Amino acid sequence: MQNSNLKIISLILFVICHLTFVISPQVFAGALDISRIGFGGRSLGLGRAQVAGRDIGAAFINPATLADFNNFRMTSMFVNLAEEANYSMIGAALPLKEGAFGCLGVGYIGATVSGIITTTSEVRSAATGTTDYKNGLFILSYARDMGPAVKFGAAAKLFSRSFDAVQNAAATGADMDIGFLFLPQNNLIAGLTLQNILSTGLAWKNGTNEDIPSSIKMGINFKPRNNMTLLLDVDSERGIHSGLEWNPRGYLLLRGGIESVPTGTNASAVNYSLGVGLQVRGFSFDYAYYIDSIVSTNSSHYFSISYDMPQRTIESRHIMPAAKPAMPETRPKIASKTYPKRKLNYSKSVL
Questions:
Q1: Three-class SS state of 236
Q2: Burial of 336 per CB tally in 10 Å (0-12, 13-18, 19+)
Q3: What's this model's pTM, rounded to 2 decimal places?
Q4: Relative to the CA of 242, which of 32, 122, 230, 331 has its CA 20 to 30 Å away?
């Protein structure tokens, strides 16, 4: 069994690396997709490895993950980035007929930077005021099983960006993601996500267009032991994300992650993360500390709360049929016979 798992992992890694470096990263140049920051403290604690994560946060990176859910789930996270940007995230999974008809997902990510100083186009012009920058992304997704070992999902994405108090400084756009999960073994999962495949871009009110970068992400989720999970993602922008999750007790999870992100054509930086999770009565409290080796102010604490609604259980009770009323006991009548009385002669005595 171990040799079989190693062969499958090696094959998946070969395909991932081959596709990643065949595709030119220049094709995927463009504006930042805000969803790349990550969905939830769990994924951030695992080096943002989430293509095959199989949790509610990972479902908004790979929509096929929603096909795993047959009960209501939700997650949320709020954090301050670089001491200036307020980042918020909320998402939910809504199974249809307890997953029999698939699962819907809704999610929102938003980032706001306040107090940006505005000036005119003239050189060394004085400040004319301040404005707030807003970046938002709404996701509507659906997934279902395509077979015993394949899951498929798709997500529609609506982007919005704006600078308040600046004329014609607003943009909107739409795009789409598709994702797959493959389950070749009980302890091995492979994931594939194609993000922003429509490449329609953002349209600003001033007439300019901004591209939304497309990307391909692939990953594996491997459990060498029941209480340990290894995750590895590789994307088309030469990014590598990996993480380890250990479950020493039923309610406690410890995490560590490392990722390599490109900083130039032939340059990259390595970032680290640590995390811990607590699971209590359907609630998951996930904390992560992400260390950015390039910009120290980007190193942040992340905290998210998720809820997994218990599945409804219907008790099966054996209903006994109602007892029939007792019937009065009837006995067959026996015809009585009369016998002639025998006369006794007391006048004779037996000596």
A1: coil
A2: exposed
A3: 0.77
A4: 32
